[in-house]
Amino acid sequence: MRAWTTRGDGIDRLTSDSVPMPVPGRTEVLVKVSAVSLNYRDLLVVGGVEHWSPQQAVVPISDGVGTVVATGADVARWRPGDRVSAAFLPRWRSGPLTRDIYVSPVGGPVNRGMLAEYVLIEQDEAVRASHSLDDVHAATLPIAGVTAWHAVAHRSRIRPGQTVLVHGTGGVALFAAQLILALGATPIVTSSSDEKIEKLRSLGIVETINYRSTPDVAAEVLSRTGGEGVDHVIETVGGENLNRSLDAIKVGGSISFIGLIAGRSADINVYQFVTKHVTVHGIETGSLEMLEELAAFIDKHGITPVLDAVYPVEDVQEALHHLELGKHFGKVVVTMPGTEASP
């Protein structure tokens, strides 16, 4: 079979090799990968950034979906033909995230990723794919989708009638906006272009702000909310953008902090944590249980993840460069041979 590996030395040094077909152990399933979905984190692994850098060749890419083709002797949960994904943090099955289970993320510098024709997954680390989505769309759930679900449904606990500021139009942001709508709340989504704003409106998102042509986004949010501010913020940018979120949040509101795009440190007006009586939650993907909840919610509400581009695996380097540009609207997906997206 073919597998792609990186040593953290850049996108253009990602290599494809012919390797032996893996054989499932007693509690493992062998999965034929159909599609993988790219995330910002993958760029950090492939680019060898700080602690994301692998010490030896590793199969990258965290998100993916495929079909079980063989099972180990003691596997009881799965059978050939089942469509599954791998939970991003394999030991985080349910409940709160703790230090002892915050280990071995899929597609990280140690644990193998999904960029191979076949992968092995422990039976208790596999999650059934959404039955309403094809493989190309289902591949987007294990990181971007579940991160948004964690923020929206578990941390913020968004209720009908509330208003939520969502920064940007990347994968997590668009998932969050779609979930917020389905929960009966109103997302206010920021974007850098009128073209993307038109795409947002085609998804039923009517409250939008072009942050390039709006001098003060927070002031605009306050104006639209009668001076109160939003109930919640999905902060997908990070860095000094947190100040904008603090300005826009209502007293007693909550901010789900996800993004690193604008930097890992910044000059923040921390006194606003006090004056706004605000709760800031750090969001780290989600548990296996959350991923199961998300799949069920998507099936119930007929939500279709937004795709920006779909590449064949032969063009995976081009796909990663496309993600690196940061101009995408929705998810960038890479397919294995024979996989197609439904209309």
Plain-language structure description:
This protein is α/β, with parallel strands linked by helices. The protein has 2 domains: 2-140 and 305-335, Quinone Oxidoreductase, Chain A, domain 1; 146-282, Rossmann fold, CATH 3.40.50.720. Helices cover 27% and strands 24% of the residues. It contains 10 helices and 15 strands. It has helices at residues 40-46, 135-138, 141-155, 171-182, 194-202, 217-224, 241-248, 271-275, 288-301, 316-325; strands spanning 2-5, 15-18, 28-37, 63-71, 83-86, 118-122, 126-128, 163-166, 186-191, 207-210, 230-235, 249-257, 279-282, 307-312, 331-335. The strands form 3 sheets. Strands 3, 4, 5, 6, 7, 14 and 15 form a 7-stranded mixed sheet that branches. Helix 3 packs across helix 4 (171-182), helix 3 crosses helix 9 (288-301) and helix 6 runs parallel beside helix 7 (241-248). The longest helix has 15 residues, at 141-155. It is globular, with a radius of gyration of 20 Å. It starts with a strand and ends in an 8-residue tail after the last strand. The mean pLDDT is 95.
Radius of gyration (CA) equals 20 Å
Shape: globular
Number of domains: 2
Relevant CATH superfamily of the largest domain: Medium-chain alcohol dehydrogenases, catalytic domain
> Which consecutive residue ranges, at least 5 long each, have pLDDT under 50?
none
Label the CATH architecture of the largest domain: Alpha-Beta Complex
Provide the helix percentage: 25-40%
Count of alpha/pi helices: 10
| Biggest β-sheet description | 7 strands, mixed
Give the topology string: H per helix, E per strand: EEEHEEEEHHEHEHEHEHEHEHEHE
Terminal Cα separation, in Å? 29 Å
Mean pLDDT: 95
**CATH topology (fold) name of the largest domain:** Quinone Oxidoreductase, Chain A, domain 1
Number of strands: 15
Derived structural class: alpha/beta
- In terms of DSSP E residues, the strand content is 15-25%
- CATH C-level category of the largest domain: Alpha Beta
